[in-house]
Amino acid sequence: MIDKTKSTKKEQREASILHEIIGVFVLLTNWNNQYGNMKFENGELELITGGWSDNEEILSKIRCEYPNFWNCFYSEWKRGGYYKFEIPEHFLGKEKE
Are the C-beta atoms of residues 61 and 48 closer than 8 Å to each other? Predict the structure, then answer.
């Protein structure tokens, strides 16, 4: 008989990453859109700091406090404070058809 209370290492890792995704989105509730911009669509999170120090601080917190999120999903940076993260659909509860 299979013990369903024991999760695999992959399931534990994915649960940890999901926890970090939630933490990042909680932090982003403080994002200042008057100076910067935030766009989330189809698993792509684009953040533009607009040079605003509070937005830069949020990015620093994401990098330090949620390293799995940063290491797994960070995909692009451009001058001017543009950051892009690509989150796979299975972490968002969407499965490809």
Answer: no
The beta-carbon contacts of 69-73 under 8 Å, at least 24 apart in sequence, are 69/17, 69/20, 69/21, 69/23, 69/24, 72/17, 73/45
Distance CA 21, CA 13 (A): 12
Would you write out the chain's pLDDT as a tens digit for each of its 97 residues?
Answer: 455 566 788 888 888 999 999 999 999 999 999 989 999 999 999 999 998 999 999 999 999 999 999 999 999 999 989 999 999 988 887 655 5
Tell me, yes or no, if the pTM score tops 0.85. Answer: no
